[in-house]
What we know:
By secondary structure, this protein is mostly helical. The protein contains 17 helices and 4 strands. A 4-stranded mixed beta sheet has the order 2-1-3-4, sandwiched between helices.
Amino acid sequence: MNPRLIWKSVKKEAELVVNDHSILLVLLAAPLLYFILMGSTYIKKDEEKVSIGVVDLDLTKSSKSFLNKIDATQKVAITHAYTDLSEAKDGLSKFEVQGIVSIPKDFEKKLKKNESSPIGLILNNTKFLSSNDINKAVNLVAMEYALDSRQKYFESNGINPSLAELKANPIVSQVNAVYNPTNNYGNFLLPVLLLLILHQTLLIGLSESVASDRKKQVMQIAFKESNQNFLNYIVGKLGFYLFLYAAYMLFTFSVAFPYFDLPIHGNFITLLAVSSIFLTTTLLYGWFISSFFSSQVIAMEIMAFTSYPVFLITGVTWSLDQMPLLLQLVSKLIPLQPFFEFIKRHAIMGVDHHLYSDLIVHLLVLLLLGYVVAFLRFSYLQKKYMTSVKDIPNSIQEG
């Protein structure tokens, strides 16, 4: 490698980015805009006071107490009271509420007799987060209320309070939520969204640059200026993007993560080192794919339109082992897949290094693969350009 030639190429790439407003917008404005947009969207990270409606057909002290306890929970709020189920379902269809709690007749009477009195719960599952919150809140209150009712029943039969409490609840479950103790959607989704933004803007910006080089026939000039050496060319071409996005990664982990209260339990230096491997791999993949296009618009469209499908098969939104075998194999070839898994294990869970070392090896293998395909593509284009120059008559070349 020739440091002087590489530095010259890096400066040239920086000038290209500054002078091309389309690339500049993608690399500088887009990450900031999307960070603000995503951060504003998930700033609370969790839903609170999801609206529910009630149909109380019992209208007793017990039914009102039960509903008051539901209303007192953090996740839901009773906003509408309906006279019957037909009216309540109409309200659900109009999105006045996200769920309906129905108290049957003789609710209090059956409780006093220690008989079963089922509570009706109708959920709008078009918003599964809201429906899960309502379901969880109602069931927790129902369990607590049932326990209290059974204990009072046993006490009324002459059993002392301590034994009555034990008989009322013979099996006690102890749930310890780890890694995402509040069980909120923001902590689950924000880390991968922030990194996905960087991944996609990097690929789009790079693809526009490479396509522009091919369209303007700058690539063959760059090959010549790098002395036809692959490392001189590729390090010079990608060095600017690696430096810029390494800075973005540092900002993400040191500023954005703390701002959104996202955990980093693992070693920070290890996190940055693996992120650098990921960025380098992504850049090699990006250059290889982009080198097939000579139109900035087409290159940008291809990179932009593949972002969501790629995200879907990384295993974040759906378990990888539940996907078809072909998609599992394709996913293993995408650097995002092991990197997202690494972020989950290292940063969010903070597990020992031997539990994520295989992911680092996976990324290194993909880095080697990216290097090989980029080198082969470089060699092909190099020969193609040299052949095209030889085919031009000497008089024209001299002229």
